[in-house]
Inverse folding.
């Protein structure tokens, strides 16, 4: 599954901040951690802040912290802030043909499985998973 | 606080009633069959003797070509008693039984639109398995 850069950054930022909700990290800290541009991450953090998932200070050195609910927020909640809702995207050329609609059914099947997977994993589940990289740093 | 113990015939009316209330389907014979010796059928009972939930499973060997694994067929928790760890206690008790019987893998099938139960199993550490379920409408 290919996620847009903004979506991946959104997931990275929320998971990093949700590891320790009492901790504050600047957009620059987060950008350095993931090796991305601070400017791009600042836009992502604004979207997350509008959704109530993080609260942040002003400017590149202002700190952000997690303000959502780790148990209630799923990966899909974050993906949905950046990606078109499955089944609600613009129609592609050729979709009305028999081959196009058959291919569309296969792609929808894949989308449904991906959505179910993302919707079933809460931040809490993700952060307590056994992967060493997700243990609080 | 609940106690986990094997289900008995006397639990069946409460099990059937809870399942019927939550799923809308009445299947007393199915639950009766779960009392068979090769099944693992456990109930969670609250301190006042009320059914808090149940879990049912079985060890299946070479099902669909897969090595022996413990299958979870069903789990239901009284809605008012959810988010108190009852489901986790039942799941862990079933998994312990599976381990005692020599299997090292637990498996289940979940409706992909049932986000509640999918999230529950994910929280227990379950991930997508090696098989894909395929269906065909025969009507």
């Amino acid at each position: 599954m290919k996620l847009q850069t903004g979506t991946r950054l959104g997931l990275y930022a929320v998971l990093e901040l949700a590891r320790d909700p009492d901790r504050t990290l600047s957009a620059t800290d987060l950008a350095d951690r993931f090796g991305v541009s601070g400017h791009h991450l600042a836009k992502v953090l604004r979207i997350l802040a509008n959704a109530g998932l993080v609260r942040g200070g002003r400017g590149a050195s202002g700190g952000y912290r997690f303000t959502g609910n780790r148990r209630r927020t799923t990966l899909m909640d974050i993906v949905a802030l950046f990606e078109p809702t499955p089944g609600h995207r613009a129609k592609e050329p050729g979709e009305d043909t028999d081959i196009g609609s058959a291919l569309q059914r296969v792609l929808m099947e894949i989308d449904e499985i991906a959505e179910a997977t993302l919707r079933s994993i809460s931040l809490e589940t993700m952060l307590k998973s056994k992967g060493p990289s997700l243990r609080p740093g | 606080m609940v106690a986990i113990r094997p289900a008995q015939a006397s639990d069946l009316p409460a099990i059937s009633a809870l399942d019927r209330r939550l799923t809308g389907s009445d299947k007393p014979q199915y639950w009766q069959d779960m009392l068979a010796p090769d099944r693992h059928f456990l109930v969670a009972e609250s301190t006042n003797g009320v059914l808090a939930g149940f879990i049912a499973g079985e060890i299946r060997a070479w099902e669909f070509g897969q090595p022996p694994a413990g299958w979870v067929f069903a789990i239901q928790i009284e809605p008012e008693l959810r988010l108190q760890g009852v489901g986790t206690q039942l799941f862990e008790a079933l998994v312990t039984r599976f381990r005692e019987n020599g299997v090292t893998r637990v498996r289940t099938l979940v409706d992909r639109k049932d986000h509640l139960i999918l999230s529950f199993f994910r929280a227990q550490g379950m991930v997508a398995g090696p098989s894909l379920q395929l269906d065909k409408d025969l009507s």
About this structure: The first strand of chain A starts at residue 25 and ends at 26.
